[in-house]
Each structure stands twice: as C-alpha cells, then as structure tokens.
Amino acid sequence: MTRTVYIETYGCQMNVSDSELMYGTLQASGYTPVEGPEGADVVLVNTCAIRENAEQRVIGRLGELRRDLKPGAVLGVTGCMAQRLGPRLLATDTRVQLVVGPDAYRMLPQLIEGARGGDRVTATDFDLEEHYEDVVARRFEGVKAWIPVQRGCDYRCTYCIVPTTRGPERSRKLAEVVRETQEVVAQGLTEVILLGQTVNSYHDGTHDFADLLRAVGAVDGIRRVRYTSPHPNDFSDRVIAAMAETPTVCAHVHLPMQSGSTSMLKRMLRRYTREEYLDCVARLRAAMPGLGLTTDIIVGFPGETEEEFADTLSLVREVRFDDAFTFKFSLREGTPATRMPPEWTIPDAVIDARYDALLGTVRGISRERNLGRLGERMEVLVEKEARKGELLQCRSRDFKTVLVQGPTEWIGRYLTVELTGTTGATFTGTLVPDRHPLPMAG
Ligand code: SAH
Ligand code: SF4
Ligand code: F3S
Questions:
Q1: Ligand 2 near 257 CB (within 6 A)
Q2: For residues 245 and 247, what is the distance between their CA atoms, to the nearest angstrom?
Q3: Residue 254 CB–ligand 1 contact under 6 Å
Q4: 411 closest CA partner among 393, 426, 390
Q5: Which of 194, 208, 213, 315 could form a disulfide with 227 if both were Cys (CB 3.0 to 4.6 A apart)?
Q6: What pTM did the predictor assign?
Q7: Which domains does the chain have, with CATH numbers?
C-alpha cells in the first residue's frame, strides 16, 4: 500500500514552488499526494516567518491538525519558520516530529522514515549548491508554472527575516531554467513565473537576468513570462531592454517600494532613495508604455515620522500604482530593526491609522485607473473558476484580474475580452466574438 502525504502551504510563491518540489521528492519515493490532512500518513506544514501574524496562524493550525491526524501519522514543519526556530519548534509542539528548512527537502524521505521509528529531528543546514535540479516538481496549478531561478537573499533590509530563513543568494544555471521551461511547455502550460527574492540580480556566473529573460522568452510554445520580485537597484538598462524587447515577457513589474521617504529607506537599508525609485519607474515606463506596476509598502517601521509617512503617501500618488500590498511593520527576532532605540517604536494606534490612510489612497488610485480603462480590449489567459458566481478568473498581460462568463473548458485558453465593468480592484469582461470564432472548440 502506498503512503499518502499532505502539504499545507503558507507564505510566498517561493513556498508554493517548494511545496511542489517536496511533493515531487516524496512522489519519487512512493508517496501519493492527497488533498487534506485527514487520514494522511505524512502531514507537512510549509511555513512563512515574514510577520508575527503569519507565524501565529501556523501555531494555531498545528493545534488543529493535532486533532485531525490519524494515529501514527508523521507531522512535520518545513519552510521559513522551521529554519528560523529549528529545535525550538520541537519543544513548543510535542506532536511535531520533523523540522526541515528550505535547503534540506531532499532528505525528507529518510527523515520521515526516522520519524516513523520515533525520531524527532531538525534539519536546517543551508546548502549553497542545492537547487533540486533532479527533482521533478509535482505541479497543481493548471495553466502556469512557478520556476525558482534564485534561492536566498544577499540584501539585508533591516526589517526582514528572509536572509535568515533562506540563506545566501545563489542562482540556478540558465540552461537548467530553460530546460524546465521546455518541460512545462511540453506539459501544456504556456505561462511561467520566474522566482527569486531579488530575481533581477540573477547571475549564474556567465549569464545575467537579461540573458535569462531572453532565453526563457524564446522557448518554443511559451506565451507569457513573468517574474517576481525584482529589486529597484538591479534594474540595469540591459534588463529593462531585454524585458521590452522580448515579446513573451509580460508588461507588468511588481516593484517593492517599502517607503517613499529617503531617510526611512535608509533606516530600512533598501539602498535606494525616493528619487532613485522614481527614476527606476520612469525608465521602466519609458521602455514599456502601458506597463502594469504594483508594489509592497510597510507602515510603522521604527522611527517613522509624520513627514516620512506623508512622503510615502505622496510617492504613491506620484507613481499611481495599479495596486499595492500594504503591511503593518512586524518586529522580527534577530533582524537589525530589533537593535533600534525602543523609543522609535510606533504605537499600534498610529500604525492602524496610517495603514488605513495608505490603503484608502492605494485603493482610490486603483479605482480611478481601472475606471479609465473600461471599454479597452485585451488578451487574457483563463486561469480558473472564480470563487463566486459561474465566472472564470482571467489575467491580462499587465496583471489585471478579469472575470468572464464561460464554461470551465476555457481554462488554459487565451481570449480577447472587452472590459465592461470594475469593482475598483477587478474587472468584468465580455468575449470579443469575432476574434474567437470557435472559443468552444477543442
Ligand atoms: N524579496 C522581496 C520581498 C519579500 S517579503 C523584496 O525585496 O521585494 C514581501 C514583503 O513583505 C516585502 O516586500 C515587505 O513589504 C513585507 N515585509 C517584509 N518584512 C516585513 C516585516 N518585518 N514587517 C512587515 N512587512 C514586512
Ligand atoms: Fe527581505 Fe530585502 Fe531580501 Fe527582499 S531584498 S528578501 S525585503 S532582505
Ligand atoms: Fe515567508 Fe519565507 Fe516567503 S518568510 S514570504 S515564505 S521566503
């Protein structure tokens, strides 16, 4: 009888991709993936440590899982929280038997064997050679593939736990990334998303990110190439030109800004000023008119003054992002921010008020931009069924979500749609019929 494994994934796309690699490793050792923890022989929780609340959720979830597990099932914690807490996790939760960091997933089959024999172990060594090249990812997403091209991070943003949980930056060989792209195309997927913490600093010793974009973008059968997340400092003219000149690379950039204030950016050790960020945006937009632009912003970082926060609001207004992920600062153990003077701590009430003001500004701009685009026609890829109604969730090249009515057989197809309505954040669209004489055909 084959054993079954269930992996529950939290955090960023890198974790989603790692879970696919873990499933792949375990499948090669005879395990069958299942969709829930009930009855599974092995349950792994692939965790995120980026903010305190991400970790609290996992702790709560482990408590629930403990009740759902069948007797004798192995419970393990993987990912960034596993790396960060190591053996401390075994001490906090006595049901957990395995704590495995992001560079040790290759050992999972043996570690699970040990756990079945009663071992409780931690495996959190970094391995700078590890790219899981020989592991065939078990993919669940139907129309697009996440492809890690770089692991770790060499920046040291003072708020961030990722350098601790993911280790130093290293890039896969370009040829390996191209090979994996060819494989996913052969499986019928037409979109890839290249992943790295500062993905545009990619360098495999011979090739940089510009080479990578051109090479992946030229793979036969690929229709969309995306990547996330780039760092503003690594947008060389070469990279921007490669992006603009490769027709398969989508005109969307997620460009984390974090703050609009130069003094704040300095305390965050982001290594760019407000003006340099703006310059990066201007160079991107000049090369690619109509570029979709999204960002990440933190409020309430230590010492944030009213003026600094006002600078963030004004930069948001100046750039006019399509959308932004906004975060309340969370102090992470071991990060340089913990060594800042305690009097710099921003009171929760102030953080909440600034957060609301920022979100209001972001959403207002988003709505204005989106309203201005009604009537536009564009190509979308049908990704999946939408959560509500009998609608399909589609994605434009510039990263807009468009809901369209149609049968599930359309999933994976490209359609031309006209934008007919917007909630402010997402669009509804209708099929432009003459361009698609046979949308229902095989
Ligand atoms: N490598 C990516 C970011 C990964 S983390 C980059 O540099 O762009 C995703 C986002 O989480 C960050 O962009 C930041 O906005 C947010 N974040 C990271 N650490 C945080 C913290 N301690 N508190 C609040 N938000 C944080
Ligand atoms: Fe964290 Fe900064 Fe590295 Fe992004 S670039 S992962 S925010 S340290
Ligand atoms: Fe979270 Fe680790 Fe990603 S901390 S955001 S899962 S790299």
A1: no
A2: 6
A3: no
A4: 393
A5: 194
A6: 0.96
A7: 3-123 (3.40.50.12160), 377-431 (2.40.50.140)
